[in-house]
Amino acid sequence: MRIAIAALFALTVAGPAWAQSGPSFDCSKASNAIEKTICARPELAKADRAMAAAYAALAGKLTGAAKDHLVKDQTHWIASRNKACTGGAEEIARCLRQRYEARVENLAAFGQDTYPFVSEQTLFKEGKVGKVSYSIDAAWPQFDGTTADFSNLNRQFADQSRKGGDEAIPDRQSGSGAPFDQTWTYDQGFTLQRPSADAVAVAIKFYGYTGGAHGMSGTTAYLVDLRTGKAVPPNGVFAKGDTWLKTLVPLVQANLKKQFRDGKPGFEDAIEPDKLAKLLREPEHYYFRRDGLELIFDAYVVGPYVSGPFTVEIPYATLKPLLAVDGPLGGLR
């Protein structure tokens, strides 16, 4: 924790370093593998400067409970980064890239509209059962604000994250019966967006491997209404009736068909109007970003594993007439 607090202090006072080519701290004083890895790689040094600048800019705007919350969350973020990013140089670098990218995006979201009081919660676990080693590195958001009761939502995020981690721990039979030494993993992180003053969009991204030919990855999205403390499905975002669905189906279908034609194989039958309408009623696909809606379809949903996820972006200019006036995005109309 002493390292984390010292690093956090450095973020608030090392402003001139952001204009240089190095990271936000003095590389001549780098004392651990993480700092040395950042100093050795220009792209990581740049990411560290960007994160430090985003944090300092936000901290400078906040006061009272909001600033205290941010400082505590940043201290936790640095400590969890140091704990999770271990191994060889390439493993550390990959871990740092993922964490910095998400943190910069989340700090930007924290600075838009009223500070949302969202903190990062983490789960780290390693072990071995028989021939199977396992590693769990999961992070999820916790809503700490007082605008509503977020307890059920927070419990859902925590339970789902722990369930994902538990699946990466083999039972005694699976571990001892493995044909060779292997490693099972569960990695999870999240990013946030602020599409409106009343809402925070959450995208939880995960990857799990529990044997077999390949692992499984995906993204589950939520739109959290800060007024109610609940995640809102599409029919709570858009005006009553099916006008929104009748508008989205042909737009999404046309976009996906174009992606299929452009060399990314997909399942034509999965995007037939009736099936696509059913799919678009599912809330986990909707990531309402600051600049528009990103629809995310994981592997196997509309295409094979080899194609990976499919995304469709729709600008708010198209969506505004469809939004419910009293919904979490009603202010965009």
Folded structure, characterized:
This protein has 11 helices and 9 strands. With 333 residues, it is α+β, with helices and mostly antiparallel strands. The chain has 3 domains: 1-111, no CATH class; 117-231, Fervidobacterium nodosum Rt17-B1 like (Heat Shock Protein 90), CATH 3.30.565.40; 235-332, Heat-shock cognate protein, ATPase (Actin, Chain A, domain 4), CATH 3.90.640.20. The strands form 2 sheets. The chain has a 6-stranded mixed β-sheet. Helix 2 packs across helix 3 (42-61), helix 2 packs across helix 5 and helix 3 packs parallel to helix 5 (89-110). The N and C termini lie far apart (46 Å). The model is unreliable at 1-7 and 12-19 (pLDDT under 50).
Binned strand content:
15-25%
User: How many distinct helices?
Assistant: 11
CATH architecture descriptor name of the largest domain: 2-Layer Sandwich
CATH superfamily of the largest domain, called what? Fervidobacterium nodosum Rt17-B1 like
Strand order of the largest sheet: 1-2-3-4-5-6
Separation of termini? 46 Å
**Alpha-beta classification:** alpha+beta
Mean pLDDT score: 93
Determine the fraction of residues in helical runs and give it as a percent range: 40-55%
Q: What do we call the CATH topology of the largest domain?
A: Heat Shock Protein 90
Oligomer description: single chain
What string gives the helices and strands in order?
A: HHHHHEEHHEEEEHHHEEEH
CATH class (first level) name of the largest domain: Alpha Beta
